[in-house]
Amino acid sequence: MRRLAARAHLWGGLLLGPVILVLGLSGAALVFREELDALGGVPVTVAGGPPRALDAIVASALLTEPGGEARALRIPARSDQPYRVQIVHGACRVDVAVDPVTLRVLASRAPERSVLAAVRALHAGFHAGRWGAVAVGLIGVALVIESVGGLWLYGPRLRLRASRARPRGRSRLVHRVVGGASLAVGLVVGVTGVALALAGGTLAALVAAGGGLVRAELREGTTVLLDRETLAVVAVRPASLGVWDVVRRLHYGDFAGWPSRLAWTLAGLALPALTITGYLAATRPRTSS
């Protein structure tokens, strides 16, 4: 059984290595998604006071994009952040950030040109929509199995034998130490990632809310208010601290400030390290003592 498990661990790592490398690097970057998004040129709102009417905010955004059509208005959860108006020109889309108090346009950008948006789509589904998300979920399951199998196979043998003090032995030692050190965080990230990929963000209910609005309730707990005529987003109400919010925070490390985010980043970087050292250990020829 141990020999068969070792073969399965080897070939599973060889086959999953490239995609694990991509998921690990993109996941480490997404831990700091808010900071990276702030570098994209959308500042926070500095003016204080009550926000203006929604139609006035949309009109201010349209002034910067003549000939465009407003399709959505995104209201942030925090009062110090700008409102975002989604404007389309045919097949092109531009997001315009507007100060809701002064109606000043703060920034505008095309989301499809955002590096962070591309990284998020790559990490969540390899730019392949729902089927890509299912593939990421299955890879997460395989990664959990690989982690548990590696711990069972090599956990008791972390000490390097003298007869293996060669490059192959050093690669195996690094592989085992990194795998053992990152196992706990890796299991949490893998399990929560599978849950988010396979179940998060799906529509649970569509309810008429009155006043010309429709309430879309997502399974993750978020509620979205839509205009019944245009289907434009009027407001987004984040989920309260429920099951899916806990799952999301555990996946991104957003629960203990910088210490948890740093630990999750290191766990993401551990995946490329495991991939590289696993390849080195598998491809280098054996050396006799």
Explain the overall architecture.
There is one protein chain. By secondary structure, the chain is of the alpha+beta class. It folds into two domains: 157 residues; 73 residues, Nuclear Transport Factor 2, Chain: A (Roll). The protein is 52% helix and 17% strand. The strands form two sheets. The protein has a four-stranded antiparallel β-sheet, covered by helices on one side. It has a four-stranded antiparallel β-sheet with strand order 5-6-7-8, with no helix packed on it. The two termini are 27 Å apart. The relative contact order is 0.14. About 3% of the residues have low confidence.
Strand order of the largest sheet: 1-2-3-4
Helix-strand topology string:
HHHEEEEHHHHEEEEHH
The total strand number stands at: 8
Spans of 5+ residues with little confidence (pLDDT < 50)?
A: 158-165
Structural class: alpha+beta
The helix count comes to 9
**Span between N and C termini?**
27 Å
Helix content: 40-55%
> Assembly type of the shown chains?
single chain
